[in-house]
Specification:
alpha+beta, 21% strand, five-stranded antiparallel sheet, four-stranded antiparallel sheet, single chain, Enolase-like, domain 1, 13 helices
Length: 327
């Protein structure tokens, strides 16, 4: 058993100050942290409880954006009227993740910070560059079927990002607000999660002593329809083999704007911008969707057990686009 100190923060400034100076972790719902502490993968010397912070509100801004407190639970966010009406892809993504009990505890900020499900990372003993830089990647040449990526990988890490919520937010567009010793700053959501490259231990653009306080969604695309599709080994409580969150706006039968993000196949929530551009001005039909899906997986690198994710991911994109445009 490892000892750690515990502190309950009553303000953002107190939380940030308490987090500084030694290996620490913030705890909210604890749905990831507690697992990894029990597995001895994360070894914080101090745990800072942020459940008392006033970050539970969902606020509609004058410019049409939606500001979400970091402590808003996945359940409350999924069932919020504005989310269901204007950001249906996010509601669908949230409700496809985890179980009801976990969604009741899991928070927006914690979900953004969710860590990979790679068994080699979580077993605490296998070579893993994310857990122990320079030790190697056991997934390359090992079991890499279900929770490993084909997009954004490197020779140092191929673990896929596990979040459903983050895929939808990548499609919508968002800003992450963080607070630290140097004050408040904003990070574009697409820049928040980092590719593994040569430094897979660096998973996000958050500095060591910073705390996520809000995620603000971009204003919804005018006249949009959307869909989130998650393909997995079983119908519930399972991480995606491949998923697609899409937002489409049409003028008649012609696509005016499209957003495509994918999960289960990338080392971060994967926004397929070239595929989106290929859809603009095209008819909303199967041929256009298939072409966009092919473009979305250009440059994909399959591994021994997960090559099937390329055609599966393409199917997810096509089916999501089809469902969004025929709703």
């Amino acid at each position: 058993m490892r000892n750690f100190s515990y502190q309950r923060a009553d303000s953002v400034d107190t939380a940030v100050s308490a987090h500084a100076g030694q290996p620490s972790s913030f705890i909210a719902g604890g749905t990831t942290l507690l697992d990894l502490v029990k597995l001895d993968v994360m070894q914080p010397e101090r745990i800072v409880d942020v459940n008392d912070l006033p970050l539970y509100d969902i606020e509609e801004l004058d410019d049409g954006r939606l500001k979400i407190g970091a402590m808003v639970t996945n359940t409350d966010l999924a069932y919020h009227d504005r989310v269901k009406n204007d950001y249906a892809v996010l509601s669908e993504a949230l409700l496809s993740g985890a179980s009801t009990q976990l969604r009741n505890k899991a928070t927006t900020g914690g979900n953004v910070m969710q860590r990979v499900r790679c068994a080699y990372f979580r077993d605490g003993v296998s070579p893993c560059n994310k857990r122990e830089p320079g030790s190697g990647c056991s997934a390359i040449g090992g079991d890499n079927r279900s929770v490993h990526a084909v997009l954004g990988t490197s020779e140092h890490c191929i673990a896929s990002h596990p979040s459903d919520m983050c895929v939808a937010m990548a499609a919508i567009g968002a800003t992450v607000t963080v607070n630290g010793p140097n004050g408040e700053r904003e990070i574009d959501f697409l820049d928040f999660h980092l590719l593994p490259g040569d430094t897979p231990e660096q998973e996000h653009a958050l500095e060591a002593d910073e705390l996520i306080t809000h995620v603000t969604l971009d204003a919804p695309v005018k006249g949009n329809s959307s869909h989130y599709l998650k393909l997995r080994d079983r119908a519930s409580y399972q991480f995606a083999l491949a998923s697609a969150g899409v937002i489409v706006a049409t003028d008649g039968d012609t696509i005016r704007e499209a957003r495509i993000a994918m999960g289960g196949v990338g080392t971060k929530p994967w926004r397929a911008t070239r595929a989106e551009q290929a859809l603009v001005g095209q008819p909303a039909n199967e041929a256009s969707f298939k072409k966009a899906a092919e473009i979305a997986f250009e440059g994909a690198t399959p591994y021994e057990h997960n090559a099937f994710k390329i055609p599966l991911g393409q199917q997810a994109v096509v089916r999501s686009l089809r469902n969004a445009t025929t709703a």
